[in-house]
From TrEMBL:
GO MF term (any one): DNA binding
Biological role stated in the UniProt entry: Involved in the transposition of the insertion sequence.
Top-rank taxon: Bacteria
TM regions (residue ranges): none
Full protein name: Putative transposase
Organism per entry: Roseovarius pacificus
PANTHER family hit by this protein: BLL1675 PROTEIN
Length: 235
């Protein structure tokens, strides 16, 4: 059995500092220079360009590892999906970030397209169902592209629409919107796709639904999530 090669093997900086840097930048609405200043107060001297390089290199690696570990525990996500799209501008041009949310608030999939038609919706749905399976129920807004795409997939009958029914998806956009403002928008479509996917995995990992549990249980879950993050690719 071959052992996985450490992604930190060519870096002189300790893995603990790299993990902390990536977590601060992706999880919280901070700029690159904000993270640089926070690390400076902790005695770590790195530039904002180093922060950018670390998150670009290690963010997708950490996100993929988190996603792999959560696959078994996310089988309940096949119960009900909430689908919605966000308007995101890239260099002044409007793009669409399609997002699939399960009934517990887990962000299942993020997909960027230039259009908002049937073809884009169909591509998004096929990608989501290939990775996470087919849900029992689908909740959407009144966008006709969803109905046309689901009909092609033989899923038009279980689509649900209604006022306030898709609030789960609408509320899930807020953490990403705050992060988007801190980054002063995106400049390339592939950068948006990359960051949206990484942000979704990190947000799922640390999202403890604080209002639904007692203080003691919340502290235990938060400590467990942080311990698991610190253990990513640990020797």
């Amino acid at each position: 059995m071959t052992q996985k090669r450490s992604p930190f093997r060519y870096f002189k900086t300790s893995p603990e500092i790299i993990r902390l840097t990536v977590m601060l930048y992706i999880r919280f609405p901070l700029s690159l220079r904000n993270v640089e200043d926070l690390l400076h107060e902790r005695g770590v001297e790195v530039s904002h360009e180093t922060v950018r390089y670390w998150w670009n290199r290690f963010g997708p690696i950490f996100a993929a590892e988190i996603r792999k570990r959560r696959v078994q525990s996310m089988r309940s996500s096949q119960w009900r999906w909430h689908l919605d799209e966000m308007f995101v501008k890239i260099n002044g041009k409007q793009h669409y970030l399609w997002r699939a949310i399960d009934h517990e608030g887990e962000v299942l999939e993020s997909f960027v397209t230039v259009t908002r038609d049937k073809a884009a919706a169909l591509k998004f749905l096929r990608k989501s169902m290939k990775r996470h399976g087919r849900p029992r129920d689908v909740v959407t807004d009144r966008l006709r592209s969803y109905g046309a795409a689901l009909k092609d997939m033989g899923r038009g009958d279980d689509r649900e629409m209604g006022r306030w029914m898709n609030n789960r998806a609408e509320n899930s956009h807020l953490p990403f919107r705050r992060r988007e403002r801190a980054m002063q928008r995106f400049r390339q479509m592939r950068c948006l796709q990359k960051f949206a996917s990484v942000h979704a995995s990190v947000h799922n990992h640390f999202n403890q639904e604080r209002s639904l549990s007692s203080r003691s249980i919340f502290k235990q879950n938060r400590a467990a999530a942080l311990a698991e993050w610190r253990g990513l690719f640990a020797a």
